[in-house]
Request: fold
Amino acid sequence: MYLNKALIIGNLTRDPEMKALPSGMQVCSFSVATNRVWKDKNGAKQESSDFHNIVVFGRQAETAGQYLKKGQSVLIEGRIQTRSWDDKDGQKKYRTEIIADRVQFGPKAGGFTGGGSSSAGASSGGASASSAGQAPQNDAPPMDSIQYPEEQINPDDIPF
Reply:
């Protein structure tokens, strides 16, 4: 059995680029940066960044192209694919990409948007109601809150 699965959580390094195939299917491509932090042998903090090329097809491509912006957090689930071509000088070029099966939007820079879902009215194209001196309008139903128990937990009661 074989498995080709990629799961990436990171931030967009550029705005998505939309194209269409000759068949009319939409294609969206963008890049996502991920980083990792660790301590070396001497205990010094080290940091490394990786950049991943993402390609999305179909309806998800249209949605990603419409709502994703540079700097936004995103979760990508898909498969890794390397394609090759000859450039104009005859040299072989390679590009490794993640072909996304699933794109999940993260919270926007202005705050949490309620589970990553976006609506057309949520775009920040102009002045918001709160910046115009009006009270902000929230047409969304109130979110359920988590009810935590009132009792205090004694650490000695934990069996492990």
Remarks:
- The CA atoms of residues 38 and 44 lie 8 Å apart.
- Residues 111-136 have pLDDT under 50 and may be disordered.
- The radius of gyration is 22 Å.
